[in-house]
Amino acid sequence: MKKVIALVDGFNIYHSLDENQSFRKYKWLNLRRLTELFIGKDEELGDVLYFSAYAFWEPDKVARHKIYINALMTANVTPILSEFKQKDRKCKECGKVYKSYEEKQTDVQIAINLFKVAIDGIYEKAVVISGDSDLIPALRAVKAKFPLKKIHLLFPPNRAGESLKRVADSYSRIREKHLAGAQFPDVIDLGNNQTLTKPSEWK
Questions:
Q1: 3-state secondary structure of 128
Q2: Residue 174 near residue 155 (C-beta atoms within 8 A)
Q3: Beta bridge partners of 77
Q4: Separation CA 125–CA 197 (nearest Å)
Q5: Angle 112-115-118 (CA atoms, 0-180°, nearest 5)?
C-alpha cells in the first residue's frame, strides 16, 4: 500500500466555504473522510495535518473553532496552530491608522512539515488541500529534492490556480457532493456523557 499524508490549509478551505452562503452548512467537515474520498484503493491515508490559527479578537469564532478542532481530533487529525499578529495599517483614502490582523505562519508551517515528512520518508504521496499560490516555492522545492514523491493538490471550492497546477503531479477539485459526504454527525459522542455539537451558526 502506498503511504499518503494530507496537509490542510485551514483558512483556505474555511473561507472557500464561508464565501458561499449555500456552502456554510458544510463547515463541520471531517477532513480525514474528505481526503479518503480522493485516494486510491492501493493507497493508505496516514497523518492528516490541519494548519490554522485562532482569530483571538473574535471570541465567538474562537469558541466555534475550538469545538471544530476537538471534532477533528476525534478523527485523528492533528492540529498545528500558528498565531495572528496585530498590525497598524493606514487608510489610503483618509490617512487614518487602524488596527488589522495578519497571519503569515501557516504557509511556512505547511512548507516545513511537507519537507520534514519527505525527509523522514513518511509518505510516497502528499495531498495538499489548498488553493494558495504562496505554497508554490515549497512544492517546487520538495519536487526538486524528492522527485519520486507525488504531490496531489486538492482545491477547495472556488480555489484554483494554473500556476499551482503546474508544480503538482495531479490535482482534483472539492465539489459539493464531496463536502456533503464528509460531514461529522451533528452530535459527536465522546463517551463519559460528553459530546461535541455542531455550532448552530454552521447549520
A1: strand
A2: yes
A3: 48
A4: 33
A5: 145
Distance between CA atoms of 199 and 203, rounded to whole angstroms?
7
Is the Cβ–Cβ distance between 3 and 125 less than 8 Å?
A: yes
Q: Is the distance from CB of 98 to CB of 43 less than 8 angstroms? A: no
pTM of the model: 0.90
C-alpha cell of residue 3 = 503511504
Domains present along the chain, CATH in parentheses: 2-202 (3.40.50.1010)
Exposed, middle or buried, 113 (CB in 10 Å: 0-12/13-18/19+)? buried
Residue 55 burial class via C-beta count within 10 angstroms: exposed 0-12, middle 13-18, buried 19 and up = middle
pLDDT tens readout for residues 92-150: 667 665 555 566 678 889 999 999 999 999 999 999 999 999 999 999 999 999 999 99
Spatial contact of 27 and 17, defined as CB atoms under 8 Å apart: yes
Residue 131 forms beta bridges with which residues?
none
Q: Which of 77, 109, 80 is nearest to 182 (CA)?
A: 77
CA neighbor of 154 nearest in space, from 39, 57, 58, 29: 39
Q: What are phi and psi of 59, to 5 degrees?
A: -60, -35
